[in-house]
């Protein structure tokens, strides 16, 4: 580190902090957890994971993509303490993934499934945050908006609407052309406007301000007060099979999101040599292990904060460490200021994040690429929404495999006719699963024909395939069929 990098890393760390602060608070709130848990997660990701990570630019912390998993897991396990036990086990599994060099298997996950997972996360995030934008103070189902049980808040809707407009404006060329405005992140501006609404609303329009729920951070006047706020794991919960299922889900999805973020980051800012995915998974595992012990949330590398870190000119890890320190200071000594943030502003930030994950352009692109791409994509989305994250990813991968097998089998064999000659082309290696197609084509060959086989591209054939070819060849003479270049010996 030299003076030139210091001049770039300090401003970059400040900007990343300003982006991460509302996201940490909003993701914790969306998960049904105390906002302090989100700040603590950002601190662990910004300090511990960064120290162990091989990447100079990847920012780790709470991820919007894991909100739905956290909510569903806590509901399944019955308590946050049991969830923390699952998070510790997930951290151990991630460490094992790193030690076993499992990072290379990320290439086996189809892009259609990955995009479907991100889109499903965005849709679930939008569904979850709509009630909050309309004035909900806690966990409220989307259905309650139409069944007459929900009390709408005009002040919350106004704050959320203004926040969404600000987030949209900050993506337009008009704002980007003004350096003084473009330097400030859109999410931070939306949250500051929301804070102004609560501060001035309390003084000028107290009746409206009462309908504007806000976050609640505890104030720490001593170290013992801080320790009392930390949730502890339920050590007996490891005997519950559901805890292990949650742990496996967290480990797989968190690792997947981390490695995807690393792949995306390579395109924004290449590093030579490229960061090891195995070392990155080990670092994330240590982070989640620590988060489970301290009562925090799951940690992943997050592409939104990482891309901001790169775009503002970070040169070393120092920028990420600075952002972690600032989050820690903010949570310990400025809780009163953060308590002025309305939930509707955080809902606007998360709604916009969900929209970017599930943008209509993504669906249009997948459909234009044909059924081989959009069928697994839609299957993944539907599976995640209906059955959960791990099952949905499994459904998406299974759909992609089945569709690929179908297309492969459909094009593996070809029968063409030239005058009285039939040419049977074997375009790839054949297995027993090709037998129905092979038998169907052989049945089309009439008597008194000449059959030529082109099998240059078939280096391997299952014994079952050879048996079908041998049976046809042995009966060919009786039917007056002459065989040329037949790939198996016949009597």
Structural notes for this entry:
It is a single chain. The chain is mainly alpha-helical. It folds into two domains: 371 residues, no CATH class; 66 residues, STAS domain (Transcription Regulator spoIIAA, 2-Layer Sandwich). The protein is 65% helix and 5% strand. Strands 3-4-5-6 form a four-stranded mixed sheet. The protein is elongated, with a radius of gyration of 29 Å. It starts with a helix and ends in a 7-residue tail after the last strand. The mean pLDDT is 80.
Layout: helices, strands, pairs:
Layout (H helix, E strand, L loop, with lengths): L2 H28 L4 H18 L6 E3 L5 H11 L2 H20 L11 H23 L20 H16 L3 H4 L2 H4 L3 H19 L1 H4 L13 H7 L11 H28 L8 H18 L5 E3 H9 L6 H16 L1 H4 L4 H15 L2 H9 L2 H17 L1 H24 E6 L2 E6 L8 H9 L6 E5 L8 H14 L5 E3 L7
Parallel strand pairs: 4-5, 5-6
Antiparallel strand pairs: 1-2, 3-4
The H-and-E topology, N to C, reads as HHEHHHHHHHHHHHEHHHHHHHEEHEHE
Query: Gyration radius, to the nearest Å?
Result: 29 Å
Shape: elongated
| Strand element count | 6
Helix content: 55-70%
Total of domains: 2
Largest sheet properties: 4 strands, mixed
Low-confidence stretches: none
- Assembly state: single chain
Task: Calculate the terminal CA-CA distance, rounded to whole Å.
Answer: 79 Å
Q: Looking across the biggest beta sheet, what order are the strands in? A: 3-4-5-6
Report the average pLDDT across residues: 80
Classify the secondary structure makeup into a structural class: mainly alpha
Instruction: Tally the helices.
Output: 22
**Percentage of residues in DSSP E strands:** 5-15%
């Amino acid at each position: 580190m030299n003076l030139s990098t210091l001049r770039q890393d300090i401003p970059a760390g400040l900007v990343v902090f300003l982006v991460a602060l509302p996201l940490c608070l909003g993701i914790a709130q969306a998960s049904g957890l105390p906002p302090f848990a989100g700040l603590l997660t950002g601190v662990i990701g910004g300090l511990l994971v960064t120290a162990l990570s091989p990447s100079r630019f990847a920012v780790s912390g709470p991820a919007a993509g894991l909100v739905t998993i956290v909510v569903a897991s806590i509901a399944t396990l019955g308590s946050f303490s049991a969830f923390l036990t699952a998070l510790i086990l997930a951290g151990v599994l991630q460490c094992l993934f790193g030690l076993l060099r499992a990072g290379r298997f990320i290439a086996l996950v189809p892009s259609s499934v990955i995009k479907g997972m991100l889109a499903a996360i965005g849709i679930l995030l939008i569904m979850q945050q709509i009630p909050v934008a309309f004035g909900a103070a806690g966990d409220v189902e989307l259905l309650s908006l139409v069944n007459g049980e929900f009390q709408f808040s005009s002040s919350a809707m106004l704050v959320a609407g203004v926040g969404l407009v600000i987030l949209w404006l900050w993506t337009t060329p008009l704002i980007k052309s003004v350096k003084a405005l473009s330097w400030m992140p859109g999410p931070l501006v939306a949250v500051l406007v929301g804070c102004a609404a609560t501060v001035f609303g309390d003084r000028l329009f107290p009746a409206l301000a009462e309908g504007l729920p806000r976050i609640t951070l505890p104030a720490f006047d001593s170290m013992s007060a801080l320790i009392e706020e930390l949730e502890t794991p339920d050590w007996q919960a490891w005997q519950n099979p559901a805890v292990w299922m949650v742990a496996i889900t967290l480990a797989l999805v968190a690792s997947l999101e981390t490695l995807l973020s690393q792949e995306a980051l390579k395109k924004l800012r290449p590093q030579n040599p490229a960061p090891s995915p195995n070392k990155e998974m080990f670092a994330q595992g240590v982070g989640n292990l620590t988060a489970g012990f301290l009562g925090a949330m799951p940690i992943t590398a997050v592409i939104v904060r990482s891309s901001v870190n790169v775009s503002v000119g970070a040169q070393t890890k120092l920028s990420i460490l600075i952002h972690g320190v600032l989050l820690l200071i903010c949570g310990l000594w400025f809780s009163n200021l953060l308590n002025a943030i309305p939930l509707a502003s955080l809902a606007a930030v998360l709604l916009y994040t969900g929209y970017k994950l599930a943008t209509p352009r993504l669906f249009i692109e997948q459909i234009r690429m044909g059924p081989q791409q959009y069928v697994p994509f839609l299957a993944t989305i539907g599976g995640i929404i209906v059955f959960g994250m791990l099952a949905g990813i499994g459904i998406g991968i299974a759909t992609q495999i089945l569709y690929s097998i179908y297309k492969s089998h459909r094009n593996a064999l070809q029968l063409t006719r030239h005058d009285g000659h039939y040419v049977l082309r074997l375009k790839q290696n054949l297995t027993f699963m090709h037998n129905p197609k092979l038998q169907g084509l052989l049945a089309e060959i009439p008597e008194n024909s000449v059959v030529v086989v082109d099998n240059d591209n078939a280096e391997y054939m299952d014994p079952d395939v050879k048996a079908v070819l041998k049976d046809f060849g042995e009966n060919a003479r009786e039917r007056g069929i002459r065989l040329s270049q037949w790939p198996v010996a016949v009597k």
